Amino acid sequence: MVSLSKSFEEFFATENLQFYFIALIITLVISLFFHAIYFYRMLQEKKVTEQKIIAGTASAKFESLKNQIDPHFLFNSLNVLTSLIEESPEIAQRFTTSLSKIYRYVLEQKDKELVNLSEELEFAVTYMNLLKMRFEDSISYSIPQEIENPEAKVVPLSLQLLLENTVKHNIVSEAKPLYIKLYEEVGYLVVENNLQKKEVMQSRRGVGLKNIVD
Predict the structure, then answer these.
(1) What is the pTM for the complete model shown?
(2) CB-based contacts of 108: which residues, under 8 Å, 6+ apart?
(3) DSSP letter (8 states) at residue 175
(4) Which strand (E) or helix (H) includes residue 181?
């Protein structure tokens, strides 16, 4: 009977250990390579999933904000119209015609994430003309005829919200006229007005500015 068993000393004495060492290194390298590919794919899938979640959350927030802006605009415009009907039916009729054109713009931009700044400025002119129908010489404004960057874009109706806030939070009267100025400055669009806060509005913080910041 032949014994196949060898002692460790005999085995290591007769075998070329370098061969086994090289085979071990090759096996480890191949194993690490496939593990690296696996973990890289897992990491990429995790990043994609995270980005989808972030994008989905941002999109949901943005849609929520737009849904707040549209009714806010209509509600305040109808309040203005109600006042004009009592004060001047003729102006109220012209206001209604202009309001229909403005709200058509609102509906056209409703599903857009961004619009050209030039379009928003044109809309701002129409909106300010509506306010002048109500306040007449108690309000004045200046809006740039041309913009430095024709590719500039803004969130739809964000400019309207800022203009609306100037009237909502400040006194507008013949004794204290409101001056609103729009201009560009270092890549930003600035809405500026003389500060004459309404007493009843000083302690209130509405959703308008928060919507724009978000």
Answers:
(1) 0.61
(2) none
(3) S
(4) strand 178-185
Instruction: Give CA 183 to chain center in angstroms.
Output: 21
Domain residue ranges in the chain? 63-213
CA angle, residues 175, 176, 179, in degrees to nearest 5: 135
Tell me if 178 sits within 8 A of 212, measured CB to CB.
no
Structure-block tokens of residue 89: 């039916």
Q: What is the pLDDT along the chain (214 residues), one digit of tens a residue?
A: 445 555 656 655 666 666 667 777 888 888 888 888 888 888 888 888 777 776 666 665 666 555 555 566 677 778 778 877 877 788 888 888 888 887 788 778 777 878 889 888 988 888 888 888 878 889 999 998 888 888 888 888 788 888 888 888 889 888 999 999 999 888 888 999 999 888 765 555 566 666 667 6
